[in-house]
Every structure is written in C-alpha cells, then in structure tokens.
TrEMBL record:
Keywords: Cell membrane, Membrane, Transmembrane, Transmembrane helix. GO terms for cellular component: plasma membrane. InterPro entries: MFS (IPR011701), MFS_dom (IPR020846), MFS_Efflux_Transporters (IPR050189), MFS_trans_sf (IPR036259). Pfam families: MFS_1. This is Putative sulfoacetate transporter SauU. GO terms for molecular function: transmembrane transporter activity. It comes from the Bacteria. Coiled coil: none annotated. Gene3D superfamilies: MFS general substrate transporter like domains. The keyword Manganese does not apply. It is found in: Cell membrane. PANTHER family: CHLORAMPHENICOL EFFLUX PUMP RV0191, PURINE EFFLUX PUMP PBUE. It comes from Streptomyces lavendulae subsp. lavendulae. The keyword Methyltransferase does not apply.
Length: 407
C-alpha cells in the first residue's frame, strides 16, 4: 500500500535509526497538534472572542459542533483517501489546510466567517488519525508502537498547552487575532517541514470499491460508541473551561487560559503513560477504567465553584483520565485491525470521537448561557459514565468471546 511503501522508506533510508525515528515521531506529533489546535484556541481565547465578536456562549459551542461535525462526516472518506495517496501528501495537506483555517479564524469579523473557517478545520482532523496510525504501523516495530502512539497522540494536548499558555499570553500583547495568525504561520512552517522530511509517495492508487468499509463493526463499533460519549465530555471541558474560570470563578482571561494549558500538560503525560501500559490483555480494560477516573474529574470541576482550587485538580484529572482514553482506543485499533484496515478502522473510531465533539458543547452551552455550570459538569459526568459503561460491556464480551475461542 502507498502508506506502507512510503513509511518503510523512512525506516530503511540510509542513516535511518533512532535519530530518524525520533524525527518521524516529532513530525507526527506536530501534525496531531495542528489538526485540532483551533479547538483549543477557541476554548482558551473564548472570553476574548465572546467580548470582541459579541458571541454568546451557545454560539461559542456551535463552533465546536461545526468543526467536529465536519470531521465526523469526512473521517470515513479520509481513511480511504490516506490509503490511496500516502502519508506525505496527507500530512502536507493536513498542515496547509490547518494554516488556512487558522488564518481565516484570525480574520473573522463575526460568527459567519468564524463558523466557515472552523468547518474547513474539520478536514485536517479527519486526516490526522488515519495518516499517523498508518505511518506507525509501517515504520515502527510492534514492541514500540504503544509508546510512539502515546507520543504522537500527545500532540493534541501539546496543542492545548500552546493555546492555553503561550498563545493566550501572546493574545494579551498582540490581541487574539495576532495570536491566531502566529499559529497559522507555524502550521505553514510545519507543512514545509513535512514536504522536505518525508520521501515522495508512490503513484496514487485507484479508488477501492465502496462496500461496507464505512460501517463500523465488532470492536470498531464498540470503540466508536465509547469515543462518542468520551468526546462529548472532553469537548465540553475544552470549550467552556476557560469561560467557566472567568464567569463563575472570577479569574482573569490569562489564568483561565492557563487552565487549558494545565489540562494539556496532564494529557501529554497521561497519553504517553497509559499508551505504554496498554498491552494486550490489559488494554481492553483501560478505556472503562479511564472513563471512571474522568467521572471524578468532572466532579472536581463542579467543586471548583465553592472551592476554586479544585478546578485546577479537575483540569489535570481530565487530562490524565479522559483525554488518555482516546489514545488507548487508537492503540487497541492498531493491535487488532485486520490487514489493510488500520487506516479505515482508525477513521471510523475517530468519527465517533468527532461526533461526540460536535454534540457535547451545544448541550453544555445551553446550560452555560444561563450560568448553570454545575449542571453542565453533571452532564459531562454522565457522558463519561456512559463511555465507561460501553467500554466495560465490550471488554466483558471480548473476554467471553476469547474464552470461547480457546475452549
């Protein structure tokens, strides 16, 4: 396949070794960061956007719905496209479109162009997991795939850190538009890096026949359901955490943005650690356990209203537990995907995750509009609990099926 041929060339090129593997991992991590950076910027800069553009909390949530609704709709086709065109073309396209979307967000005079730019940003989100997962399967030995997957998935949380701390601080000096345009320029530089660092892809393959590949089945269907509820809760936290800090806890915009950064740092460490721990026989139970921890994280966020320091503990716990669940689900896909299906299966699980991102914030926004953040965090807790129930049901069924096969 095109992806396997290109990434094999990366691994087998003269001088390939630890240094080249680290550069490949860094590039994949960077691609994951830019693929979802707009989400975290909209959350971290939310208080400024609400004030300057006259957005309501409900419209702020709608930006997330538009972006991730687009990503969910495009993800199945994105997985097939990655299989056809190869990782170099896919990653360059991802980074260039990310740059254009961020530039348009920075230029938006109101909600109309802002929503259009966010919709455009759904394209790189749809490409990110299939392209990076295919690259790992082709170029990384099985024993190291969990660790590399955790590292590249942590790129999403590095994006959260960048949005919540340096870019939010930059917005204090240059304004929020200047901060977003700076991120756009960085995405273009990353695209140039990908163009130079990756070998040329083989010729584009002919389109495979359209069959049942758009329909999740078996483990993929269960993980897509888990990801739907998990994504709904995470997106609500990402979108409204900074606004909650400003409006309910009396924080300034920069400290409130730092909450998103704290979540991002915890997510980086959590994704790396839990992905390393996700070995066959143990990985099947981790999504449910992480979802249970996420329920506790939502409770801590709710407790921030009477006891403000708890909001910091809650932000960290969301990163350690909820955010890490997505990385573990991707490890499971790579461990169990049928030959030639890794990209498509990754895309279908990601589609569930993105659908949750589209659904969660508008529901939370209705509560935030009236200042009922406590009820909003209860909703998030229920979403995380539902994710845990789906994950545990699948793990039990999977263990019984495995026992039946070995009996």
């Amino acid at each position: 396949m095109a992806a396997e041929g290109t990434t094999a060339a990366i691994a087998e090129a003269p001088g390939a070794g630890d240094g080249r593997a680290r550069r490949l991992t860094a590039l994949l991590t960077c691609a994951m960061a830019f693929s979802m950076l707009q989400l975290f910027l909209l959350g971290a800069l939310g208080p400024r956007l609400v004030e300057e553009l006259g957005l309501s909390p409900t419209v702020l949530g709608l930006t997330t719905t538009v972006g991730f609704g687009t990503a969910a709709a495009l993800s199945p086709a994105g997985g097939r496209m990655v299989d056809r065109v190869g990782p170099r073309r896919s990653l360059v396209l991802l980074l260039v479109v990310s740059a254009v979307a961020l530039a348009l967000i920075g230029a938006a005079p109101g909600a109309g162009l802002l929503l259009g730019a966010v919709a455009l940003g759904g394209i790189p989100q749809a490409l990110a997991n299939p392209a990076t997962n295919k690259a790992i399967l082709a170029a990384v030995p099985p024993a190291r795939r969990g660790a590399v997957t955790g590292l590249k998935q942590s790129g999403v949380q590095l994006g959260a850190f960048a949005a919540g701390l340096p870019l939010a601080a930059l917005a204090g000096g240059l304004g929020w538009r200047g901060a977003v345009w700076t991120a756009s320029g960085a995405a273009l530089l990353a695209g140039a890096w990908a163009l130079r660092a990756l070998p040329a892809d083989p010729p584009v393959r002919s389109a495979p026949p359209v069959g049942t590949s758009y329909v999740p089945r078996g483990m993929v269907a269960w993980l897509a359901g888990f990801s739907l509820f998990l994504g709904a809760g995470i997106a609500s936290v990402n979108t409204y955490l900074a606004l909650y800090g400003v409006r309910a806890l009396g924080m300034g915009p920069t400290p409130a943005g730092a909450l998103v950064a704290a979540l991002g740092i915890a997510g980086v460490l959590g994704r790396i650690g839990w992905s390393k721990a996700a070995r066959p026989g143990r990985a099947e139970w981790l999504p449910g356990l992480l979802a249970c921890g996420a329920v506790g994280a939502a409770a801590l966020l709710a407790g921030g209203s009477p006891v403000p320091p708890l909001v910091w503990a809650g932000a960290v716990a969301v990163g350690v537990f909820a955010v890490s669940g997505n990385a573990v689900s991707m490890v499971l896909v790579m461990q169990r995907a049928a030959p030639g299906r890794a990209g498509q299966d990754s895309a279908l699980v990601a589609a569930g995750f993105f659908a949750g991102f589209a659904v969660g914030p508008p529901l939370f926004g209705l509560l935030a509009q009236s200042g009922r953040y406590g009820w909003g965090w209860l909703l998030v807790a229920v979403e995380f609990a539902a994710a845990g129930a789906v994950a545990f049901l699948w793990a039990v069924r999977d263990r019984r099926a495995g026992a039946g096969r070995t009996a």
